[in-house]
Amino acid sequence: MSLTKAERTVITSMWGKISTQADVIGTEALERLFASYPQTKTYFPHFDLSAHGSKVVAAASDAIKSIDHIAGALCKLSELHAYILRVDPVNFKLLSHCLLVTVASHFPADFTADAHAAWDKFLSVVSSVLTEKYR
Predict the structure, then answer these.
(1) How far is Cα 133 from Cα 54, in angstroms, rounded to an integer?
(2) Which of 7, 25, 81, 105 could pair with 118 in a Cys bridge, judged by C-beta atoms 3.0 to 4.6 Å apart?
(3) Among candidates 31, 22, 28, 37, which has minimal Cα distance to 91?
(4) What does the H/E/C string look like for 4-44?
(5) pTM, whole model, 2 decimals?
(6) C-alpha angle with apex 91: 89 to 96, nearest 5 degrees?
(7) What letter would DSSP give residue 81?
């Protein structure tokens, strides 16, 4: 699945606004994940929520900076989660959903139907890339 030029434009233009609140959005997305899907906490017995939220958003930033080659940008992260951390791949989809909701709640005026579709597709691509090494 690839992103259209219009979808890439929506993602990159909204990222300019999102990046100013990146740490808050990353932390809030993880809080939503843990509240909505408590089973995901098992992968995080001892960690700093804010620090990991920053890592989540940094990974999204890397994917956006390399939006035409997301697989290359996230290859090492995929290997880490598959081979070392052994995170259940379904968690990437759950986190994507929580990130989508968080972005929508912070930027309701910008989160049009087209933006929703573009972000959903982008996060699906990211989830797919992160689960590639599981196959």
Answers:
(1) 23
(2) 7
(3) 37
(4) CHHHHHHHHHHHHHHHHHHHHHHHHHHHHHHHHCHHHHHHC
(5) 0.86
(6) 115
(7) I
pLDDT tens, N- to C-terminus, the chain (135 residues): 789 999 999 999 999 999 999 999 999 999 999 999 998 888 776 677 778 888 888 999 999 999 998 888 888 877 777 667 777 778 889 999 999 999 999 999 999 999 999 999 999 999 888 887 776
d(CA 39, CA 36): 9
Structure tokens at 13: 């233009």
Can you tell me which residue has the tokens 């379904």? Answer: 90
- DSSP-derived secondary structure letter, 111: -
Record the tokens describing residue 24, joined without a space. Answer: 């808050």
Could you tell me the CA-to-CA distances from 108 to 75, 82, 95, 111, 118 in Å, in that order? 32, 34, 19, 5, 15
